[in-house]
Amino acid sequence: MTFNKKNSELDNASRRDFIIKGTLAGGLIIGIGAVPDLAFAQATAPHDHNSPTKYGEAEVNAWVSITPDETVFIRIARSEMGQGTRTGLAQLVTEELECNWKNVKTQSATPGHSLARKRVWGEHGTGGSRGIRISEDYVRRGAAAARMMLLEAAAQQWKVPVSELKVEKGVITHLPTGRKTTYGQVAELASTLNPPDPKSITLRNPRDWKVAGQPYARIDTANKVNGTKVYGIDLQLPGMLCASVKSCPVFGGKLVSYDEAKIKNMRGVKGVVKINDSTVAVVADTWWHANTALNAMPIVWDEGKGASTSQAGIDKMLRDGLNEQGDFWQRKVGDAPAVINESAKKVEAVYYTPYRAHVTMEPMNATVQIKGDRAIAWVPTQNGEGSHAALSEATGIPLGNCEIFKLDSGCGLGRRGSTQDFTTFAAKVAQQFPGIPVKVVWSREEDLTHDYYHPIAMAKMTAGLDAAGNCTGMHIKVAGQSINATLAPAAIKNGKDERQLQGFYENGPDAQLGYTFPTLLTEYVMKNTHVPVGPWRGVNTNQNGIFMECFMDECAKAAGKDPVQFRQALMQSHPKHLGVLNAAAKKADWDKPLPAGTYRGVAQFMGYASYSACVAEVTVQNNVVKVTRLVFALDCGHVVNPYLTREQIEGSVVMALGAIFNPEITVENGRIKQQNLDTYPLLKLAATPKVETVLVPTYDFWGGVGEPTICVVGPAVANAISAAIGRPVRNFPLSKEGLSLA
Amino acid sequence: MQLNVNGQIHNIDVEPNMPLLWAIREAVGLTGTKYGCGVAQCGACTVYLNGEPVRSCSIAVSAVGSAKITTIEALSKNNTHPVQLAWIALDVPQCGYCQSGQVMAAAALLKKNPKPTDADIDSAMSNVCRCGTYQKIRDGIHVASGQKKLVDVLAQYDATPATRG
Fold first, then answer.
1. Residue ranges of domains in chain B, CATH in brackets
2. Nearest chain A Cα to B144, which residue?
């Protein structure tokens, strides 16, 4: 496949089209003096760190391009949605490249460009807290190789052995003579050299890092505070049309007919497009016109058999599932049910966790332009290559003639990765308007009622205790919906879906159970509905963390033991799990008494190859809960940016607390009952406790950061509440237990 | 129809029932003001009408009249409002989508109440952030108001201005 000419035209054209509006107009004086403290803050960010890589650009290698003015362009393949992966990867490259951080700018590798270069940038997917941990090795090796080539170029220029050279922050010194040159001066020659033998590349020991591992400021903050950052929803391209979409309110239902005549004379309307069997779009000059007309257009749906589904019916199906007997087991150590039955004491509890919606702050959207035999899309996506494939599949245009410009997303949370409905919809609409860029934006109502929801689940937990209060066996039986059944049916083997028991696995590296029970049985009873489900930050560690860790507290109480000590006794073969538990307990002064009226809870769990523990302190008055303190310990192996890691933990708290207290997503007559944030409110600042974090990296593995801690928030808080009110809480959200958050 | 946005008069041809948010975004062309819910719940669309913060998604453009509209793009020249400086210095934003509204709400709070307490912040800052940046928003307001030193806030996160790169 030859790409150069054709695609550089495509690339340049789309770059020209990529008009960023939003100039700073008219100053406003506010009556506060400038704060001298902040004088160092960078006021402007002239570079768009999401600029796409350029075809044919001179580069040292795929990861690094350096211009004569010493600007170091670092190529980032992963998506940025606020989690800080861009900054972290740039730190890792800077560390091995030994360039000057002040000169670093990033560019975004585009999927089409990557394909044309035999996937030189590897995977683009940014979910499962993998942005850094999956690519760190080849990214760091690429940077180290570039450093070696730059040094080799200087050595050739000076005709000296490379061993006589030293580099610091992009300045190369010939040690015997003191001569100096810079990366910018030797980059052109370096770009003509062969890459070094991979075996000759040695990476720095993370314990010796100078740039990585530091709490560096994000490189892409400045345009987020003055409205100039362009999200997908903000794109304004010449001649662009906008569309709003509506799918059958009942999942699985069909579009029967729509009355285009009723709206065709409405202002700005350009047409109606049937996207697929169940989805229609109205296209107009502006999105507000499109959405207004869509809401006015009579549509007849065949709602199908899903329309008879109620929340009570789904709940009953799950509850019945907990009592079904069958071949559901995934882990078996001894005969746990028999041992539990014969134990001195039997503990049993049933838990319930609901559907949850993502509600990314920026609603789903994508913009597509079909130009002859080529297609271009601008997509806020967590999976650039997934968007690329969806664009090609929807348009029938070969992948090689498709290109994706990934836009930084207004939240991802798992919604913009494996599900590419937004890309497909935009492609289908744009096909009807050849040559014209069409931006398809979902209304919040559409976004909330056509999500891929956090799966609903219940669990029956059963344990045995001997006379001394030691655990003799654990039986975990989960009934609920399967994400793979919606998104990846081939991953379900013989009716068994391991993914739904994330966190209960025998082995790592992803989500190993941190307890060694003398006997153990884990079972998953798949109970699917017509409601689509998908990954939601933390995925199945959310409910499984609640099931396991709330139940551990019930067991500890039945055993008359301290919750931390009860856990520790079962964790001696899991030193990393134990390490974070101990670190959190220590930081939270677990052994010291609390003020009257304040109660503690603890939880530990593993997900995304990282170990998390949390201690929560709460007060409960008249069934109103106030979370007064939250302490976390995280072992993610290596910490690339401790400041941004802490921010991810703080963010996970907000999402998790909202998930255990705020109203849930429910099904009524087959459709989602909650239409917008008035009936599906999200957690706000006033309810958010202060978060204290202790990072305890053990420097011997690479774990994720964005998701791991979310699953310990709920159980730690719930356990503190149970301690306060003297009874276990098992039904989520906690309104089902008569509790609310202050 | 005329709209006075950021000190400039814009002649726009729109329906009177168009929400101010969409007039700003699609007729005036300033996209810093965001659409989050359309029902005045999230605050991403916060702008000032004659200096008072309002949720522009729920005000018909016809109701604005000659009121002066200020959007995030005109909060300061060059990101120099103390709230913006604090937001940058502390990396308050994560994805950033809601932050236009957060910054406008925080700046409005400080204009009214230059030294807000935590309780004042709790009641004034009702904008939704799905990334969960609330702790840093609180820190940012304390720093912007001069009630906390940046260096002290950074110290809570094991950072100093010098280690921020």
1. 2-74 (3.10.20.30), 82-164 (1.10.150.120)
2. A35
